[in-house]
Amino acid sequence: MNRFHFWGSVILAALTAVLCGGTSAAQDTATAIGLNLPDKAPESSPAEQVSAIMQSMADLKSLSFELLLKSKLTRGDQIRETAINGSARLKGQDKLRLELRSGNEEVWLISDGNVQWVYMPPAKRYLKLGEVLPRAEFMCKAPGGPFEALTTWLADFLHGNLVMLNQAKEIRRLPDEPVGSEMCLVYEFIYDRFTLRALFTRQNPPVPRRLEADMSADLQDSTHGGLNLRLTASTEITGWQPNVDIADDLFSFTPPPDAREEGATKIKVGEDAPDFSLPNASGQTVRLADFKGKKSVVLDFWASWCGPCRMAMPKVNAVANALKDEPVAFYAVNLQETEDIAKRFIEKNAITLPVLYDRDGTVARNYGVEGIPFLVVIDANGKVAWIHNGYSEDLEKTLAQAVRKAIGQQEQIKK
Fold it and tell me: Of 361, 274, 349, nearest to 317 (Cα)?
């Protein structure tokens, strides 16, 4: 289905009545963007107002805009900030070119509708996706981390996916605020794990100008007790150009001759698992090679800020406890977090999985981790037996089955 669906003058007429929620507010906003309203405009909910704004862009044939993403993690007087510059080009139903840059790192997401690529120019590495994803889902492949809520929300908004409205516990219309010298309409979305504010221009039709996400409340619960963490992220959207002429060849990609394909080194079931040496919580080194011929190994790549990881880990922990007497070792591989943050998360959630620390992400890269949680079952012969990316409700069942199968195979070999 074409998510850039045509609504025409019906939506534009509806916008004049719903942009600000009340009769006088709607009249004021309509005046600001040069429209005429009757004296008494009908009331509408904030969700209906945002839905109308989404649909006002439904007839776009192409779109170009620039992005500036910023995140800030504060712990007491310690502050860690990240900034990413980017540009997005969309055309038709499925063409995309998203380029993101941060310091010396850069990643491109390119889709012509038939083939999708992820390319990292400085490293000269690329990945060709085996399965073509819907464009909204493909857009969320980067940058992830603290920006995941923003990029997912924006992708859903641009593609008319009402899930970002339906999953909100509450949507509120707030007083207008300036972004630079430009006054904007402001909406606040309350979700289970974060709060998001969306600021739209007052032009006709409105367009997104700034998104702000606050994940601090999720970090202040019992899972991070005592750390006094605050995590916020934002994205500035500029250079908004609808229906701009974009050449089709911008959405095609040919890997440079000297570029290396990530898929060539990404782990696959039946192949040797990459060896690794990682420190545990006691400072001792754990090596995959030490388990060969003795035990299967389960790796769960995770981070405490990752919502799906936090839902998956209790299920992994349950499987580990159920199989504690079997020849298998479970490890939670923490990605690039400090030991005290990981330790508090583990303790507050009564997780008994031993933790390994992939401080620079090298092991994750060697295993082809593109998103977390990422689980791998390795049999006693050092072969990859099972791979699972993301969270699923039946994870406990499928993981237990995969581990038992790996154990069963090694027992048959011993016999």
Answer: 349
